[in-house]
Write a structure and sequence with these properties.
Largest sheet: 2 strands, antiparallel
Helix content: 40-55%
Distance between the termini: 48 Å
Number of helices: 8
Structural class: mainly alpha
Oligomer: single chain
Strand content: 5-15%
Order of helices and strands: HHEEHHEHEHHH
Mean pLDDT: 89
Low-confidence stretches: none
Shape: globular
Number of strands: 4
């Protein structure tokens, strides 16, 4: 009986969470549309190339999807092998540094949330190339595929951007801790922490 009640509560929360994702992401896209246009113009003015780029990430169930971000690097910043951004990375544009510092480059992912690829809160999605590497260090990593990835996460607010594999593994372990704490209160706390991180400009 207790287990059934827990399962029902979990199912109810998943439905409610998806509903909130739709309402809040749609509202944010509408309210922030002038900001999004301004940022897109800044990206275009800062360096040649598109304002928004898409990148393959691993989502719920391990399925691949395209994540959308404001471009913070020069076009063709990678030579074929995925590379993480590091502090002082010369590939990052001047305007891109501002976007990354305040995590503004992630705002286009509100569209991913509205589409259902992502949730507002959940484990951060990684590229397939790095998923393979993380699995070797964290065999339980695939547990994160049980839920939709998030625009923000416990790992993102507590760790931030990862500039190497060690950082990615540490962040993944923080995100795994989220799985056992999922609730409306936990999500609200993570969103509040995210707001503080953004205001303080703690990105890389």
């Amino acid at each position: 009986m207790v287990r059934r009640l827990e399962e029902r509560a979990g199912a109810t929360w998943r439905v409610a969470k998806r509903g909130l994702d739709i309402v809040l992401s749609a509202a944010a896209l509408c309210l922030l549309s002038p900001v999004l246009l301004f940022l897109a113009s800044g990206v275009k003015a800062g360096s040649p190339g598109p304002a928004i780029y898409r990148q393959t990430r691993c989502g719920r169930g391990g399925q691949h999807f395209f994540i959308y971000k404001f471009r913070t690097m020069k076009v063709d910043a990678e030579d074929g092998t995925p590379r993480l951004a590091v502090p002082g990375d010369p590939r990052v544009t001047s305007f891109g540094r501002i976007l990354r510092r305040y995590h503004l480059d992630e705002l286009p992912q509100l569209w991913n949330v509205l589409r259902g690829d992502m949730s507002l809160v959940g484990p951060r999605p990684e590229r397939p190339y790095f998923v393979v590497l993380i699995r070797r260090r964290n065999p339980d990593y695939d547990r994160l595929f049980a839920v939709r990835p998030g625009l923000t996460s416990l790992g993102m607010v507590r760790f931030g951007y990862a500039s190497d594999l060690d950082g990615m593994v540490e962040r993944s372990r923080l995100d795994m801790a989220y799985l056992s704490r999922q609730s409306a209160l936990t999500d609200l706390r993570i969103l509040a922490e995210t707001a503080r991180v953004v205001v303080k400009g703690k990105g890389v």
